[in-house]
Design brief:
Layout lengths: L1 H13 L2 E2 L8 E8 L2 E8 L3 E4 H7 L13 H24 L10 E3 L4 E3 L9 E4 L3 H12 L35 E4 L54
Antiparallel strand pairs: 1-2, 2-3, 2-6, 3-4, 4-5, 7-8
Length: 236
């Protein structure tokens, strides 16, 4: 199950749509493979993928000194240092090309293998019990166990308190405290790859995930400043 969920998490990040200040055309970013070569791609309308490195080298109007990202990590690190602007220029150039004049760096998405956007993440922290429906689901499971006393679905166990600096509980808030757990980067799989089910299991569980990429190094950041460390992309 963990391997499957991680694959979904990565795919969800690829499906985030962005829009550049240079073009009103929304686009997506992902990592793809074609004939054994991996590359960062710009997805338009979910049907075509622009090979970012190839397009960056071929498009000379306007001229640019921005180096193409080596991978998604490199793109994230340099996104606000010229890469964002260059992506907008590339999208505009492709969208402005004459009808039927498709360049070699514009590919059909169906002909590519979709890989996890970030192939080798460093640390993956996952938050559990962060929405009420799942909280209630977990409580229903516990009520069916041998536990003598379980609180009503969706409510926290007796004695649950705030975790200062992590989860500040309002007076009327009866939800469980969310908590973090780690997942192994080696559990990531690409779109369509096999899901390994552990021995003794007969099925996998699935859920959609929202991924947040921390774009700047951070440690013990005050809550009021946390949003400054999260890498955010512009959207329409």
């Amino acid at each position: 199950m963990r391997r499957f969920v991680l694959g979904v998490t990565a795919a969800a990040f690829a499906a985030c749509a962005f829009a550049s200040a240079q073009t009103p055309t929304p686009f997506k970013l992902g990592t793809f493979e074609r004939q054994g070569r991996r590359f960062v791609g710009i997805v338009l309308r979910d049907t075509v993928v622009i090979d970012l490195a190839a397009a960056n080298a071929a498009i000379r109007t306007p001229a640019s000194t921005v180096a193409a990202p080596a991978d998604m990590k490199d793109l994230i690190a340099r996104y606000d240092a010229g890469v964002r602007t260059r992506i907008g220029q590339i999208v505009s150039a492709v969208e402005g090309a004459p009808t039927g004049a498709r360049q070699a760096y514009v590919l059909d998405r169906k002909d590519l293998k979709t890989l996890p956007p970030v192939m080798y993440p460093m640390t993956m922290l996952n938050v559990a019990v962060n929405y009420r429906e799942h909280d209630a689901e977990m409580s229903r499971g516990a009520r069916g166990s041998s536990q003598a006393a379980v609180p009503p679905p969706g409510t926290a166990p007796p004695g649950t308190q705030s975790a200062p600096g992590i989860w500040q509980r309002a007076a009327a808030d009866e939800r469980w405290n969310p908590y973090f757990f780690l997942k192994s980067p080696s559990a990531i799989v690409a779109d369509g790859e096999a899901i390994r089910i552990p021995p003794g299991r007969t099925q996998v569980d699935w859920e959609c995930e929202l991924g947040v990429v921390i774009g700047r190094r951070a440690s013990r950041v005050p809550i009021a400043q946390a949003s400054r460390r999260v890498h955010r992309y512009p959207s329409r």
